[in-house]
Design a protein that fits this description.
Length: 224
């Protein structure tokens, strides 16, 4: 194991064991490096790496803190990587979404309250006539995020958020608008929300499968 990896493992163990908790400030560099039996330079590299993946927050002039460790924050790095992928990798990502999004919709049909449903319906009403790509991407991100949030499962929400970032969504919606399928796609969103309102988890699941699979098929056709 590389020395920097040892430092990362040491800090991770401090968090896992409860020595450090979310929001805690790390001990001074000299003290921490000595307790881990590592050089200060190795510790600095470990801190930089953990800051990139949002485990640590380095505050200039204040110190280094453990972040909230919320799933949505920790999965931001995955979202960045997803946006870099193209072609077959994007199709694989959509295959994962096709497994997770229907499950989220089915669960949300049983856990969403009246306000959750009302918010989703209002989002659909707020989609303007002849929306531009930016508006559609914003709507799509928030629509799927709200469904995941209404499940009450923060890990599921964070994972789904990370699986399709703005770049991928913009590519998809650009194709949807070019083929004149925007009304149909928004209509699919309406159908999913209506199934949720009725508490019909199986229908919400089936409609979400069709929705995500349809986009997946469009991507395959566009790649061909």
């Amino acid at each position: 194991m590389a020395v920097t990896d040892e430092a990362i493992a040491g800090i991770k163990e401090m968090i896992v064991s409860g020595i450090l908790s979310p929001g805690d400030r790390l001990p001074p560099e000299k003290e921490l490096s000595e307790s881990l039996g590592l050089s200060r330079s190795s510790l600095r590299e470990a801190v930089k790496a953990l800051a990139v993946i949002r485990v640590l927050d380095v505050r200039r002039g204040d110190g280094t803190y453990v972040t909230s460790l919320e799933p949505s924050m920790l999965l931001e790095a995955m979202s960045f990587v997803v946006d870099l992928h193209q072609d077959d990798s994007v199709l694989e990502i959509f295959a994962v979404r096709r497994m997770l999004e229907p499950a989220a919709a089915e669960l949300a049909a049983h856990t969403a309250d009246e306000q959750d449903i009302a918010d989703l319906e209002q989002m659909l009403e707020d989609v303007p006539d002849g929306p531009d790509i930016e508006a559609l991407v914003s709507h799509d991100i928030e629509f799927h995020r709200r469904i995941a949030l209404s499940t009450g499962n923060s890990y599921l929400t964070g994972l789904l958020d990370s699986l399709s970032g703005p770049t991928v969504r913009a590519r998809v919606w650009r194709g949807i608008t070019e083929t004149g399928s925007t009304p149909r796609t928004i209509g699919e969103h309406r159908g999913i929300v209506e199934a949720m309102r009725r508490g019909d988890g199986q229908l919400a699941n089936a409609l979400m499968v069709a929705h995500v699979a349809g986009i997946e098929q469009w991507l395959k056709a566009a790649k061909a």
